Amino acid sequence: MAVQISNVNDIRVEKHPIPLFKGFPNTSILSKPLLIYRSVFPSTTSSSEIANHLSSIGVVAPQWTYTMYSFSHFHSTAHEVLCVSQGSASLCFGGEENPGRVETTVKKGDVIIVPAGVAHRLLEDLEGGYEMVGSYPKGTNWDNCKGDEAELEEVTERISKLKWFDRDPIYGDEGPALQS
Fold this sequence. Notes:
Elements lengths: L11 E5 L17 E5 L8 H11 L2 E7 L13 E7 L1 E6 L8 E6 L3 E4 L5 E6 L5 E7 L14 H9 L20
Antiparallel strand pairs: 1-2, 2-7, 3-9, 4-7, 4-9, 5-6, 5-8
């Protein structure tokens, strides 16, 4: 049986533009904000049910279930969809030293859409066992970049060639990712 997610009109959506900072492009290239959908999945939803939901929508392919790295990194070849499947955590987006960074707490049921180029890292696992289902647009291969300023021109070129979502990864034909 398919998991029942919150109605798109009932969720709170946060949109965060994050400026370029040193070797982290953040949202400066594609002008798509970091998106956080609050309380999408019921607290009883398992990571396999989340992966099944993502697969049924067909926009992204679930690739792993894990925590978030504790160092700032970003992807230059794919956008990332992170669905919190266990626990809660304090996260940083944009780079720890960036005055325009976003620090937020996420919990089980939240969804984070991280545009390519946005630095992200785990600051603190608040309950122990923090876990997410990580997904990427179908047909893409993700990389890991650590913000080396010498690579900024190269990663900027890769990111600028990426297309944004034609369908929302969670809601399909409607949804906040289409309005960003």
